[in-house]
């Protein structure tokens, strides 16, 4: 097998190239993890089906990580990972605060989409009463905090005295909290809330996108020097994994994985797939980094004046910075017919 998996409790390993430890013909090892949730499904699918894994010029060691960006960032810092896929806002915050991580490329080029939801029983009061009520948000989710700030600007909550937030651990916890009155509204990612809206349990009263590509590849500084070729080849392999995941003949197996691993079934699968595009390129848009930095600063999650510009953290030698007039080119995404049948395709 070309892959291995390990828990986040794996022993610390020294970073750097491992080629010289067992002879010149031994493949180097690349330890990769993520904290992006369901967007990692194509990689999970490729690993489960061993798609093109043995053809890699390195041993892919997929590390099972907690679904928490802080934990994955700590694992990178401790040398437990060489490369990770993280939400863009988490990477920008880390490198702006002085982390030595290097940005190696863009994983998903589509934005994260959030919605504000109230109980259908209280939807008529959403315009007024809900502004004075607690709002449930996913615990330790930087993207949700930024969406709350955007919502606050939209509704001018500062003039109304602010908003009390109540952290929630999961969608099930959010459903229970809003049904019991523990919160009067929740701010959640739209694809996750789809079933609640479709069933009539929740009503959407506001929505917004975080205006940047949603996730990036980030590596340790050591890995971008000692394992630069392996990092680039993994990004290329991830692009192929996304395309394989979206092929028509893979639909049934892909749906099984989404159902078993992420509890996503039925129309929710179509809703999610129609909202995401995988770039998987050693390229980063300048405006993605600047927009995330600006949003973090405005929301008070970074202090201006002592920040490192994120563009300085690009991996030298292989990660290109795209300007405002430049695009990623083809991205792996799913198109749908009017009847909702999945069709493979590429997007700009």
Explain what the structure shows.
There is one protein chain. The protein is an alpha/beta fold and 348 residues long. The protein has 2 domains: 3-111 and 212-347, D-Maltodextrin-Binding Protein, domain 2; 113-209, Periplasmic binding protein-like II (D-Maltodextrin-Binding Protein, domain 2, 3-Layer(aba) Sandwich), CATH 3.40.190.10. The chain contains 11 helices and 16 strands. The strands form 4 sheets. A 7-stranded mixed sheet has the order 1-3-2-4-11-5-12, sandwiched between helices. It has a 5-stranded mixed sheet with strand order 8-7-9-6-10, with helices on both faces. It has a two-stranded parallel sheet with strand order 13-14. α4 links the parallel β7 and β8 (165-168). The longest helix has 18 residues, at 228-245. It is globular and about 65 Å long. This is SsuA/THI5-like domain-containing protein.
**Count of runs of 4 or more consecutive helical residues:** 11
SSE pattern, N- to C-terminal: EEHEHEHEEEHEHEHEEHHHHEEHEEE
**CATH superfamily annotation of the largest domain:** Periplasmic binding protein-like II
CATH architecture of the largest domain: 3-Layer(aba) Sandwich
Helix content: 25-40%
Given this structure, which CATH class of the largest domain is correct?
Alpha Beta
For the largest beta-sheet, the strand count, sense and barrel status come to:
7 strands, mixed
Distance between the termini: 35 Å
Domain count: the total is: 2
* Beta-strand fraction estimate: 15-25%
Average pLDDT figure: 86
Question: Quick one: how many beta strands?
Answer: 16
User: What is the chains' assembly state?
Assistant: single chain
- Give the low-pLDDT segments: 5-16, 18-22, 336-346
Rounded to the nearest angstrom, the radius of gyration is 21 Å
Secondary structure class reads alpha/beta
CATH fold title of the largest domain: D-Maltodextrin-Binding Protein, domain 2
Instruction: Describe the strand arrangement of the main beta sheet, using strand numbers.
Output: 1-3-2-4-11-5-12
Principal-axes shape call: globular
């Amino acid at each position: 097998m070309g892959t291995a998996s390990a828990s986040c409790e794996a022993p610390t390993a020294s970073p750097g190239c491992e080629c010289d430890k067992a002879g010149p013909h031994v493949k180097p090892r690349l330890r990769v993890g993520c904290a992006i949730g369901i967007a990692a499904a194509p990689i999970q699918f490729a690993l489960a089906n061993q798609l093109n894994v043995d053809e890699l010029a390195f041993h892919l060691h997929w590390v099972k990580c907690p679904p928490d960006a802080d934990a994955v960032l700590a694992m990178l810092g401790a040398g437990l990972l060489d490369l990770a896929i993280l939400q863009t806002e988490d990477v920008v915050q880390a490198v702006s605060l002085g982390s030595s991580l290097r940005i190696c490329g863009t994983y998903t080029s589509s934005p994260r989409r959030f919605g504000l939801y109230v109980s259908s029983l209280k939807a008529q009061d959403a315009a007024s009463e809900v502004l004075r009520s607690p709002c449930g948000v996913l615990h330790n989710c930087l993207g949700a905090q930024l969406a709350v700030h955007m919502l606050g600007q939209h509704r001018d909550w500062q003039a109304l005295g602010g908003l009390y937030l109540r952290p929630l651990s999961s969608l099930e916890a959010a459903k229970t909290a809003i049904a019991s009155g523990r919160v009067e509204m929740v701010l959640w990612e739209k694809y996750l809330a789809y079933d609640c809206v479709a069933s009539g349990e929740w009503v959407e009263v506001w929505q917004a996108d975080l205006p940047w590509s949603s996730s990036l590849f980030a590596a340790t500084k050591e890995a971008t020097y000692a394992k630069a070729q392996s990092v680039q080849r993994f990004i290329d392999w991830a692009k192929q994994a996304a395309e394989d995941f979206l092929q028509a003949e893979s639909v049934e197996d892909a749906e099984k994985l989404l159902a078993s691993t992420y509890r996503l079934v039925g129309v929710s699968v179509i809703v999610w797939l129609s909202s995401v595009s995988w770039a998987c390129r050693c390229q980063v848009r300048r405006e993605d980094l600047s927009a995330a930095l600006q949003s973090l600063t405005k929301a008070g999650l970074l202090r201006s004046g002592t920040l490192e510009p994120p563009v300085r953290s690009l991996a030298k030698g292989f990660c290109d910075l795209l300007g405002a007039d430049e695009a990623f080119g083809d991205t792996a995404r799913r198109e749908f017919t009017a009847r909702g049948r999945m069709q493979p395709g590429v997007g700009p």
